[in-house]
């Protein structure tokens, strides 16, 4: 066992957590989606889109 190797995912599972923390602060990683490479990648895409929306709301 590797302690703290993955984010805790307690039931009921809420897979999608916000990547926009407000005040121009964005976060991504497996702790924002599923605890997996897939989740990390998806959260990165969501964070990038959120940044673009913030910088260019009409884009
Ligand atoms: C043993 C093991 C096996 C796994 N096998 C699979 C698998 O088969 N398939 C799968 O989909 N997923 C697997 N996972 C899960 C997958 O590896 C993670 O979900 C994924 O790598 C998370 O990516 P991330 O970018 O969110 O975080 P990470 O890959 O953990 O990247 C975070 C980075 O931030 C750095 N960091 C941390 N704190 C700071 C700080 N204060 N300042 C600067 N840098 C910091 C860390 O050093 C690290 O490089 C496995 C995980 C483990 C531990």
Please explain how this structure is put together.
The protein has 59 residues and is of the alpha+beta class. The protein has a domain of 36 residues. Helices cover 32% and strands 8% of the residues. A two-stranded antiparallel ribbon has the order 1-2. 10% of the residues are buried. The model has no long low-confidence stretch (mean pLDDT 93). Bound molecules: flavin-adenine dinucleotide. Flavin-adenine dinucleotide binds next to helix 1.
How far the N terminus sits from the C terminus, by CA atoms, comes to 46 Å
Average predicted local confidence, pLDDT: 93
The strand line-up of the biggest sheet is: 1-2
Low-confidence stretches: none
What are the secondary-structure elements, in order, as H or E? EEH
How big a fraction of the residues is strand?
A: 5-15%
Shape, principal axes of CA atoms = elongated
The rounded Rg comes to: 13 Å
Number of helices: 1
- Beta strands, count: 2
Percent helix range: 25-40%
Biggest β-sheet, characterized? 2 strands, antiparallel
- Helix/strand/pairing category: alpha+beta
Q: What ions, cofactors and ligands are bound?
A: flavin-adenine dinucleotide
